[in-house]
Design a protein that fits this description.
By secondary structure, the chain is of the alpha+beta class. The protein has helices at 4-10, 38-49, 56-73, 124-131; strands at 24-33, 81-89, 92-99, 134-139, 145-152. Strands 1-2-3-5-4 form a five-stranded antiparallel beta sheet, covered by helices on one side. A hairpin with a 5-residue loop joins strand 4 (134-139) and strand 5 (145-152). GO terms for molecular function: protein serine/threonine kinase activity. It holds the Pfam family HATPase_c_2. Residues 1-23 are annotated as: Disordered.
Length: 165
């Protein structure tokens, strides 16, 4: 996962997307040290990349949840790294978080019980499930994993000046 060729491979849409156009362009990409404090920097990175887009707030929130999982639950958090890539399609925004996870198991989404008292944590993927139009993961179990999400996006929002960015 160290060059653009590999990233182009994992950025392809998942099977079953139908005939809709899923082409997308890379906006930006950055690697972060696998430390808890780097999640905040990943959020800021995505916020800057998608500033003005209609899905910006949700993109920052979901990036935080998935990057936190990468640091807490994979080898990324043991002196490793995670990488954030931001793509834009005709009608969607896609963020991919590449980590050093080796599990082939699909992430488990815990059901939220809004009436029960819950300990902090454990809600990240439920939030992703709730907010994202589509999300998933890819990887071969040996060289890392990519967890991605897509949000509907019509492009940059109108600025106060009335011009598009």
């Amino acid at each position: 996962m160290h060059d653009d060729t590999d990233h182009a491979r994992v950025a392809l849409p998942s099977p079953g997307t139908g005939s809709r156009d899923r082409s997308m362009a890379l906006l930006t990409r950055r690697r972060f040290a696998g430390l808890p404090e780097q999640v905040q920097h990943a959020r800021s990175f995505v916020a800057l990349a998608v500033d003005g887009y209609t899905a910006a707030d949700d993109a920052v929130l979901l990036t935080s949840e998935i990057a936190s999982n990468a640091v807490l639950h994979t080898e990324s958090g043991n002196g490793g790294f995670f990488e954030v890539s931001v793509y834009i399609g005709a009608s969607f925004l896609r963020v991919e978080i590449s980590d050093e996870g080796t599990s082939l198991e699909s992430p488990v989404v815990r059901l939220l019980d809004l009436d029960a008292e819950q300990l902090p944590g454990g809600r990240g993927l439920a939030i992703v499930e709730l907010c994202a139009t589509r999300w998933g993961q890819s990887g071969d179990g040996s060289s890392g994993r990519v967890v991605w999400f897509e949000l509907p996006c019509d492009g940059p929002a109108l600025r106060r000046t009335g011009t598009r960015t």
